Every structure is written in structure tokens, then in C-alpha cells.
Amino acid sequence: MVTGIEAAGGGQGNGIGKRSCFCSKEDFLPEESFKSWGNYVHALANTKTRLTDRILARSMDHQELEQMRARSHNQMKKTLNWWDLIWFGIGAVMGAGIFVLTGQAARNDAGPAVVISYFISGVSELLSVLCYTEFSVELPVAGGSFSYLRVELGDFVAYIAAGNILFEYVVAGASVARSWTSYFATLCNHNPNDFRINVPALADNFNHLDPIAVVISILVCIGAALSMKASSRFNSVTTIVHLVVLVFIFITGMTKANPANFTTNFLPFGFRGVLKASAVLFFAYIGFDGVATLGEEIKNPGRDIPIGLIGSMLVTITTYCVLSATLCLMQPYSQIDADASFTMAFQAAGMNWAKYIVALGAIKGMTTVLLANLIAQARYFTHIGRTHMAPPILASIHPKTGTPVNATVIMTVANSLVALFTSLDVLANLLSISTLFIFSLVSLALIVRRYYVTGETSTSDRNKLIGFLTLIVGSSIATAVYWVLSQGWIGYVVTGVLWFAASLGLQLTLKQAKKPKLWGVPLVPWLPSASIAFNVFILGSIDVPSFIRFAIWTLALLVYYIFVALHASYDAARETDRVEAQASQASQATNMEAGTS
């Protein structure tokens, strides 16, 4: 592990060097505010001033692209193209979700119309993909959504998002690792918990230790840390094999298809059931945002990122719709098993051996999800470490491998600890809230990026933008609340008119202040506005206790921010301002000398 106060670039602990092979305080808190207790007390005394500064502070494109990257001392290797990104996108998204969620949605919510539910949730996810694509083309940096929010909505919002990104990736990685053990047990003709160690002394949901989940996480870590290109090749081959397995399931299932199962009662729960199922199935598409963190390793971001992100999502939507239709053709929806839908459908058709194919497909899918999850996780926190909102030791890029080894190892340790102990049943919905929260913020940030430029947009136009965005978000929240509390339709007319009027007003009364240089989302503000509405609507399907846990987690983030991250990032920002001022003075002096000559 690379250590040293030069981890983040020069000055006060802004760079990563090779001082020693052991960690010290300087690797985690090198900033001036933490040099002594006296400095820290002085920093705390100025918390109000610093908080005001950081809440209002917004980064700039060139700072994210140049200065933040420089703090890693070494550069990531540009080895990826659009072909790699397509397979990374598919591999990051297409895990066991199709096998787990389809039966639940078809049996309990949508019936055969689960195909429509998959399409609706896929389209809503595609809207988020479009927003991420424009940002990642304009800002091809490892920070992904953290960087986009830092530029458009400011440091504080970016920090809250970063904390939720941390939670999202740790819980998702641990959850997939434990699911890997479950499907591996099925493949070996065992119950899922047979390969786990039961410790009665521990509390429920924490007493089934999963060493296999830890081992598979470590193996993935080694591959991700050693070589990005090798990881990409492994992901491509494994994902292609996974798709071949899914095609086999489709062809074999269609040999047992009965059209009557599909057409006799296509909408048993009505359209409300279709929408309810789409809210559940939305989470089968999660994972694409990790591709946006690969920006620093892509050869031609302007071409490769749109093809990779959008292409992989279109393949995923098509695959999910086709496989869900296959399941509903094989069995009447009322007979579909909610927990092991494909396995039981093949067993009912006299093809008990097919459960091994399903388990094999799930294992291959989850392996690529684990790899893509860890790669994205490490790159997110490399960039967050560059800003000093997380310890700058995370910002290190290994000079030989060109990968963020420190962040990869540290995140693997976090994933493994959670995977070893926790069943994650309680945390699953909290993960969903974090993801939808970040997707909504990115869509909102895209509208801000198009319509507001500091120093150019007038005060009246800024106030109009704030008003329209408030109406868009408010009407979206009202729609979600009405969905939960009422069975009627009149409320949707009111909230829908408000959303439409706000989006139309934004288009007609404000001129876009910034146009994308290489690739942009079409139909702005309509598509990002629709993305906000979809994401907030799906948030309405999540239970109240999960929102309470989300509030507690956010409160914990705020405590860390007030006592640590605020002062670390403030010092790092002041150091950046000092370096920029010196560079500007040097440039002016050079120009004056040239003029004198």
C-alpha cells in the first residue's frame, strides 16, 4: 500500500509519495487544521465561517480534470474503448436480479404484464443513463456522480452524495458476495446457509458468518488492483458467457411455452400493479453508474462513453423483457414461485437439471457485478480522497499498475466485513433510497449545468431557475405521496399539470447558458425533469422505516462532516487557491518580461 503525505499533490499533504510502507496520521489527516490540538480547536471555532464557505463553493471543470487528478501523483492508464464499456455496463447491471425479482413482481404485482413493468423501469433508468452520459463525456474523471455534483451543486451536496455512494457500494458489494455463496451452495446441492458458519451467540441477521463471500471478494480485489485491462478482458469473457447462458434459458424455456399463460389474464392486478412492479424491478438495472467512474481510463470519452453506457442499457432492457416474457409463457402467473421463479418453472416442466444452469448463470453474473462494483467503488473514493473529504491515502494511483490500489484494498476490507456478518435484509431498502437519491441529484445537476453559469447568468434568471426546479421536485414528491396515500386519480392531474408547467416554463422563459461540447442529452429540460419525477416516484414505494434509517445515516455523515471533512476539505481548497494564485502571478510576470523584451 502506497503511503506518505505526498499522496495528494504538494503543499499540505496534497501529494502521495513513497515515504514509508507504514501508515501514519499524515496519510489520513495531513491538513493544517489537524497538525496540532491547538489548530483543531481553532478550526472548530471557525466552523460557521468554513461551513458557509463550503456550502456555497462549487468546483470548476478544469479543477476536476487537472488539479484533482494531479493530487494522485500518477495517472490511470487509458486502456478502455467502447467495446470494453459495453461489457462493463452489462456486467455491472446484469447479476442475479432477473432471477430473484421477476418471480416476485409477476406473482404478486403485475402478472404477465411484468414485461411492461420491466420496460417502464428500464426506460426510467435509461433517462438517468442519459444524464450520466453527458456528464461523463464532459467530465471524464474517476469521481463520477460525486464530481458532477461538486461542480454543479457544490461541495456540501457532493459530500452527502459521497456518503451515500459509500453506503451504496459497500452494501451492494457485500450483498452480492453473500448471494454468490447462496447460488454456489445451490449448484452444489446444498441449502444456502450450509456453507455459512452459524454463531448463536451473535444477534439475528448477524450470526451466519460467510467466509466464502470474503474469499471471493479478496480474489476480485486482487484482479482489480493488478490490471485494469486484464480485469476488462475477464469481465468481457465472463459477461459473454453469462449472456450465452441467458440465451440458453430463453431457448429452452420457449420449448415449454404456452401462449394461453400469457394472454388469458394479462393484467390481473391492473395498471397500478404494473407501476408497483416497475418500482421493484427498477433495482434490477442498478449498477450502470459505475461505468461513469472509468472516465480517466477511456481512450476516447466523447465517442466511447455514449456507445458504452447507452448500448449496454439497451441490451439489458431487451434481455430482461425477453426473459420475463419467457417465464410467464412457461407458467400461469399464479403458479410462479416468488423466490426461485426460473428454477421452479423448469422443474414444473420436468427439467429439474435446468436449476444448475440458472445457478451457474447467476454466479457468473454476480462475479462480474462484484468486479464492476469494486472497480467503481475504488475510483469513486480515489477522487473523493483527492478532495480530502475522505482520507487522502485513498487518492494514490500505483505507478506500475496505474490502478488505485489503496482504495481498492480499503474498500474490499469494508465490503468483506459487512459480507462476513450481515444478512443485509434490513439494509436492502436503505440501499435503494441512496441510489435513487443520487440519481435524482444528478438529473437536477444536469438542468443546473445547462441553465446556470456563475458570473454569466443574471440574478432574475437564477431565481426563475430555482423556482422552476422547486416546482419540478415538489410536484414529483406530491405525486409519490399521492400514490402511497390514495387510490384515486384526480391528484395526478394536479401534480402532473404542475410538473408539465414547470418544465415548459423552464424551456420557454430561460435560455440555456451552456451547451455540451461533444455529446448532450436531447430534449432538455424534459428528459432530466422526467428522470427526477421517475426517481422520486419510485422512492415513494419504499417503506417508512427505511427513510428513518436513511435519516440516521445522513445525520452520522453530517457529524463526520462538521468535525472532520469540513476542515480537511477547507484546508485543501485554500491550498488549491494558493497554488492557482502563485501560478497566475508567475504567468503575469512571464508576460510582463516578454512584453519588456
TrEMBL record:
<dbReference type="InterPro" id="IPR002293">
    <property type="entry name" value="AA/rel_permease1"/>
</dbReference>
<dbReference type="Pfam" id="PF13520">
    <property type="entry name" value="AA_permease_2"/>
</dbReference>
<keyword id="KW-1133">Transmembrane helix</keyword>
<feature type="transmembrane region" description="Helical">
    <location>
        <begin position="156"/>
        <end position="177"/>
    </location>
</feature>
<feature type="transmembrane region" description="Helical">
    <location>
        <begin position="430"/>
        <end position="453"/>
    </location>
</feature>
<feature type="transmembrane region" description="Helical">
    <location>
        <begin position="113"/>
        <end position="135"/>
    </location>
</feature>
<comment type="similarity">
    <text>Belongs to the amino acid-polyamine-organocation (APC) superfamily. Cationic amino acid transporter (CAT) (TC 2.A.3.3) family.</text>
</comment>
<keyword id="KW-0472">Membrane</keyword>
<feature type="transmembrane region" description="Helical">
    <location>
        <begin position="208"/>
        <end position="227"/>
    </location>
</feature>
<dbReference type="Pfam" id="PF13906">
    <property type="entry name" value="AA_permease_C"/>
</dbReference>
<feature type="transmembrane region" description="Helical">
    <location>
        <begin position="465"/>
        <end position="483"/>
    </location>
</feature>
<feature type="transmembrane region" description="Helical">
    <location>
        <begin position="234"/>
        <end position="254"/>
    </location>
</feature>
<feature type="transmembrane region" description="Helical">
    <location>
        <begin position="307"/>
        <end position="333"/>
    </location>
</feature>
<feature type="transmembrane region" description="Helical">
    <location>
        <begin position="550"/>
        <end position="570"/>
    </location>
</feature>
<feature type="transmembrane region" description="Helical">
    <location>
        <begin position="80"/>
        <end position="101"/>
    </location>
</feature>
<feature type="domain" description="Cationic amino acid transporter C-terminal">
    <location>
        <begin position="519"/>
        <end position="569"/>
    </location>
</feature>
<feature type="transmembrane region" description="Helical">
    <location>
        <begin position="518"/>
        <end position="538"/>
    </location>
</feature>
<feature type="transmembrane region" description="Helical">
    <location>
        <begin position="353"/>
        <end position="376"/>
    </location>
</feature>
<dbReference type="InterPro" id="IPR029485">
    <property type="entry name" value="CAT_C"/>
</dbReference>
<feature type="transmembrane region" description="Helical">
    <location>
        <begin position="274"/>
        <end position="295"/>
    </location>
</feature>
<feature type="transmembrane region" description="Helical">
    <location>
        <begin position="489"/>
        <end position="506"/>
    </location>
</feature>
<protein>
    <submittedName>
        <fullName>Cationic amino acid transporter 1-like</fullName>
    </submittedName>
</protein>
<keyword id="KW-0812">Transmembrane</keyword>
